[in-house]
Amino acid sequence: MNSVLFVNIFRFIILLTVQIIIFNNMNFWGFISPYPYILFIILYPVNGNKSGLLAASFLLGLMMDLFSNSGGFNTAACVILAYYRPYLFKFSFGLSYEYQTIKLNDVLTPERFSFLLLSVLIHHLILFTLEAFKFTLLLDILLRTVLSTIFTLLICIIIIYLTKPNRR
Amino acid sequence: MQQIFNFIYKNSNRLLFLLLLGISLFLSIQSHSYHRSKIISSANFLSGGVYERINNVNEYLNLKTQNDALAQENAQLRSMLFHTKDTTAAPKLDSIKGIKPSDIIVSKVIHNSFSSQENYLTLNSGSLQGVKQDMGVINSLGIVGIIDNTSKNYSTVISILNNKSRINAKLKKSNHFGSLTWNGKSTGFVQLTDVPRLASIRKGDTIVTGGQSVIFPENINIGTIDRIKIDDQTHYYTIEVKLFNDMTNLGHVYIIKNENREEIINLEKKEEKDE
């Protein structure tokens, strides 16, 4: 139990640091930036403490907002994603997900991919909507959401493959 | 009573979610007002300090371009010095008592953003160096933005690439003015709106800051006219201005302290009260 806690704290700090130092400075064509820090919420243990996840996501988003001068956009997106994560599990892995041992940190299957895609899409849609805050910019929001989702997804999958525990 | 406790216990997750969501939405909505809350800004001790460390490393990558820009500015200033009509005459101070109306603080950009709709910069000088809210920020090429929040050693700047920014600007050759805004699309262009149809404008004309602003001194470069449109609703010109500045690559900047600012604002407030 303790090792799980430490792994999660470690993941929290590392993802936040990498996001701030490297990914926040990536701007493809001036307006697309990847946000792989939400991997923390995605990879949190399936049967872990739900209030713990909510509080941790709030803190994660708040730190991101502090560093990118963005009000509470990241915080809101993270908290919403953390709350609706069980429903996404149900959608992607079927009703009995609680009794299976789901490991996300593994080879990509259609179920895992759909879960990743949905999580990233929801987070980005909320983030960019709150950021623009205008319905006249709807097309712009959708364009940014789709393009950024592709980049974030790509980077998330690369990170998962790189940090996947070795099996012989 | 028992039932209330049971309810809270059963729905503890949902209540926590609603509480956290409420806080974050409150912060989001507050951040859309012009002067944002002081809590969420990169001018605080933690993020300012981290950005300064990161900038210490990144600075080396831009040394060459920054040096070129400074050398160019030096050359320009020197040519101004050598080509004055009478080099023996001391430059006149623009005041009776001999106090300059504006003063300049040198600072450095330690964090720059240009990818969202509302962009902010972080500078490494704050209230200890005399930086206050609503001071203008420029560099050798043109205007950069307006100071938003300050802490002891850091301050944030509302970049001209920000939806909320509205700056008084005018044509260099005539005195027709408009307000400078950004539509959030390209980092190289800003929009000058509300220029009257009477103004004779042509592509390539220079746009400078106007004299109505108490933040910027008059005649600071902004950019050149790239495209001209006529607004269907208001029948005023909307001009696409190509910036002199590359907002994605900023190094040293100057913060302008306008000594007369408070006097002007107080006077205008008095005027409003009298009406």
UniProtKB/TrEMBL annotation, chain A:
Keywords: Membrane, Transmembrane, Transmembrane helix. It comes from the Bacteria. The chain crosses the membrane at residues 5-22, 28-46, 58-84, 113-130, 142-162. This is Rod shape-determining protein MreD. It comes from Flavobacterium alvei. The lineage of its organism: Bacteria, Pseudomonadati, Bacteroidota, Flavobacteriia, Flavobacteriales.
From TrEMBL, chain B:
Residues 109-257 form the Rod shape-determining protein MreC beta-barrel core domain. Keywords: Cell shape. One of its GO terms (cellular component) is plasma membrane. One of its GO terms (biological process) is regulation of cell shape. The keyword Glycosyltransferase does not apply. It comes from the Bacteria. InterPro entries: Cell/Rod_1, Cell/Rod_MreC_2, MreC, MreC_beta-barrel_core. PANTHER family: CELL SHAPE-DETERMINING PROTEIN MREC. Belongs to the MreC family. This is Cell shape-determining protein MreC. It comes from Flavobacterium alvei.
